[in-house]
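[Discussion] Sanity-checking designs against the backbone

I'm trying to build intuition for which residues belong where. Below is a C-alpha coordinate string of 140 positions. I'd appreciate it if someone posts a full sequence so I can compare it with mine line by line.
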Protein backbone atom coordinates (compact mmCIF):
# COMPACT_ATOMS: atom_id res chain seq x y z
CA UNK A 1 0.00 0.00 0.00
CA UNK A 2 1.21 3.43 -0.91
CA UNK A 3 1.05 6.28 1.49
CA UNK A 4 0.71 9.77 0.13
CA UNK A 5 2.21 12.73 1.80
CA UNK A 6 0.31 15.88 1.42
CA UNK A 7 2.51 18.72 0.29
CA UNK A 8 1.49 21.99 1.83
CA UNK A 9 2.19 25.03 -0.26
CA UNK A 10 1.59 28.65 0.61
CA UNK A 11 2.75 31.25 3.05
CA UNK A 12 2.50 31.15 6.79
CA UNK A 13 0.82 33.91 8.73
CA UNK A 14 4.18 35.06 10.10
CA UNK A 15 5.66 35.41 6.61
CA UNK A 16 2.68 37.48 5.45
CA UNK A 17 2.91 39.73 8.52
CA UNK A 18 6.61 40.36 7.93
CA UNK A 19 5.93 41.38 4.32
CA UNK A 20 3.09 43.70 5.40
CA UNK A 21 5.29 45.34 8.04
CA UNK A 22 8.10 45.91 5.51
CA UNK A 23 5.63 47.45 3.03
CA UNK A 24 4.28 49.70 5.79
CA UNK A 25 7.78 50.93 6.63
CA UNK A 26 8.52 51.63 2.96
CA UNK A 27 5.22 53.50 2.57
CA UNK A 28 6.00 55.62 5.65
CA UNK A 29 9.29 56.65 4.05
CA UNK A 30 8.03 57.28 0.49
CA UNK A 31 4.64 58.99 0.96
CA UNK A 32 5.95 62.18 2.68
CA UNK A 33 8.38 62.67 -0.20
CA UNK A 34 5.47 62.69 -2.66
CA UNK A 35 3.61 65.35 -0.67
CA UNK A 36 6.72 67.55 -0.74
CA UNK A 37 7.00 67.00 -4.48
CA UNK A 38 3.49 68.33 -5.10
CA UNK A 39 4.12 71.52 -3.09
CA UNK A 40 7.45 71.97 -4.89
CA UNK A 41 5.63 71.60 -8.21
CA UNK A 42 3.13 74.32 -7.21
CA UNK A 43 5.95 76.66 -6.23
CA UNK A 44 7.71 76.01 -9.55
CA UNK A 45 4.45 76.70 -11.38
CA UNK A 46 4.09 80.06 -9.60
CA UNK A 47 7.65 81.03 -10.52
CA UNK A 48 6.99 80.11 -14.15
CA UNK A 49 3.72 82.04 -14.22
CA UNK A 50 5.41 85.07 -12.68
CA UNK A 51 8.07 85.04 -15.39
CA UNK A 52 5.39 84.85 -18.07
CA UNK A 53 3.29 87.59 -16.49
CA UNK A 54 6.28 89.88 -16.10
CA UNK A 55 7.33 89.42 -19.72
CA UNK A 56 3.78 90.04 -21.00
CA UNK A 57 3.45 93.17 -18.84
CA UNK A 58 6.76 94.43 -20.25
CA UNK A 59 5.53 93.72 -23.79
CA UNK A 60 2.31 95.61 -23.03
CA UNK A 61 4.33 98.57 -21.71
CA UNK A 62 6.55 98.53 -24.78
CA UNK A 63 3.57 98.63 -27.13
CA UNK A 64 1.58 101.20 -25.11
CA UNK A 65 4.03 104.06 -24.62
CA UNK A 66 5.66 102.72 -21.44
CA UNK A 67 2.32 102.67 -19.59
CA UNK A 68 1.68 99.44 -17.65
CA UNK A 69 -1.71 97.72 -17.83
CA UNK A 70 -4.23 98.75 -15.19
CA UNK A 71 -4.94 95.23 -13.91
CA UNK A 72 -6.52 96.29 -10.61
CA UNK A 73 -8.86 98.74 -12.32
CA UNK A 74 -9.80 96.71 -15.42
CA UNK A 75 -9.00 93.16 -14.35
CA UNK A 76 -7.28 90.54 -16.49
CA UNK A 77 -9.34 91.44 -19.59
CA UNK A 78 -6.74 94.04 -20.57
CA UNK A 79 -4.22 91.20 -21.06
CA UNK A 80 -6.59 88.47 -22.25
CA UNK A 81 -8.32 90.68 -24.82
CA UNK A 82 -7.15 93.10 -27.48
CA UNK A 83 -6.19 96.73 -26.92
CA UNK A 84 -5.67 99.70 -29.21
CA UNK A 85 -2.87 102.23 -28.95
CA UNK A 86 -1.97 104.81 -31.58
CA UNK A 87 -4.46 103.31 -34.02
CA UNK A 88 -2.87 99.84 -33.80
CA UNK A 89 -4.54 96.83 -32.21
CA UNK A 90 -2.43 94.72 -29.87
CA UNK A 91 -3.01 91.52 -27.94
CA UNK A 92 -4.14 89.29 -26.55
CA UNK A 93 -1.12 88.91 -24.32
CA UNK A 94 -2.44 85.83 -22.49
CA UNK A 95 -4.90 83.11 -23.44
CA UNK A 96 -6.54 82.72 -20.04
CA UNK A 97 -6.67 84.39 -16.65
CA UNK A 98 -3.74 83.14 -14.55
CA UNK A 99 -4.63 81.28 -11.37
CA UNK A 100 -2.09 81.24 -8.56
CA UNK A 101 -1.72 77.52 -7.66
CA UNK A 102 -0.53 78.33 -4.13
CA UNK A 103 -3.39 80.67 -3.20
CA UNK A 104 -5.91 79.08 -5.62
CA UNK A 105 -7.00 82.55 -6.72
CA UNK A 106 -6.81 84.72 -9.82
CA UNK A 107 -7.71 87.90 -7.96
CA UNK A 108 -5.29 90.80 -8.41
CA UNK A 109 -4.93 93.54 -5.78
CA UNK A 110 -2.56 96.31 -4.74
CA UNK A 111 -1.54 94.55 -1.51
CA UNK A 112 -1.37 91.01 -0.21
CA UNK A 113 -4.57 89.99 1.55
CA UNK A 114 -6.74 86.96 2.12
CA UNK A 115 -7.97 85.30 -1.10
CA UNK A 116 -5.71 87.45 -3.31
CA UNK A 117 -3.61 85.52 -5.81
CA UNK A 118 -1.52 88.29 -7.34
CA UNK A 119 -0.13 91.55 -5.97
CA UNK A 120 0.30 94.25 -8.61
CA UNK A 121 1.64 97.79 -8.67
CA UNK A 122 -0.21 99.71 -11.40
CA UNK A 123 2.37 102.50 -11.37
CA UNK A 124 5.46 100.38 -12.05
CA UNK A 125 3.93 97.21 -13.48
CA UNK A 126 5.65 95.04 -10.85
CA UNK A 127 3.76 91.83 -10.06
CA UNK A 128 4.25 89.18 -7.39
CA UNK A 129 2.28 86.28 -5.97
CA UNK A 130 0.84 85.31 -2.63
CA UNK A 131 1.97 82.06 -1.05
CA UNK A 132 -1.37 80.93 0.39
CA UNK A 133 -5.05 81.79 0.74
CA UNK A 134 -4.27 83.90 3.83
CA UNK A 135 -2.34 86.36 1.65
CA UNK A 136 1.19 85.63 2.81
CA UNK A 137 3.70 87.18 0.41
CA UNK A 138 5.47 84.75 -1.90
CA UNK A 139 9.24 85.18 -1.92
CA UNK A 140 10.86 84.11 -5.18
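Best answer:
Here's mine. Compare freely.
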Amino acid sequence: MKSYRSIQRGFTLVEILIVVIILGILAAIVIPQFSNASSDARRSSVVSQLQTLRSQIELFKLQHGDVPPQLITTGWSVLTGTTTYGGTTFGPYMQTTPVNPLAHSSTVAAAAAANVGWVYNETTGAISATADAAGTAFVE
